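We treat protein structure as text, and this decision shapes the records that our systems exchange. We quote a single record here, exactly as it is kept in our systems:
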Amino acid sequence: MWTCLHYCSKKIPDLQLVLVCWPRLSPDSLDVPEGVEVRGYVPALRRPFLYFPLEKHFEQQFYVTEPLNRHQAGIKMQYSLTTPETLADMIVSNIGKEVTYPPIVTDGAQKALD
C-alpha cells in the first residue's frame, strides 16, 4: 500500500503522511518507508481518517466499526479491495475536510475514579 504515497505525491507534492497506531500497536514494530511519520495512539484527533478493520474478525468488524458508524466518524475501508490508486484517491479527496462527528468523550476513566 505504500505505493499510494507515489500517487498522492503526484497530486500533492508537499504531502506528509502520518500513520497513527491503534492502542496496542507499538509504532516501533512497524517497517514504514522513509518520510512516513509514525505516532502512537491518538484518542481524539478531530481529523478525517480512514480505517481498515481486520476482515473476517468479528471484534474489528463490530466493536470497532459500530461506534464509528454511530458517531459518523472515519471512512471504513476494506484492505482486500483497496489498491494504491484508490487509497491515494481517498486520501486526496479527504484532505482539508472538516469533521462533522461530535468530540469523543475521553474522560471515562477519570469519572470512574471520582
Summary: Residues 3-104 form one domain. The CA atoms of residues 50 and 72 lie 12 Å apart.
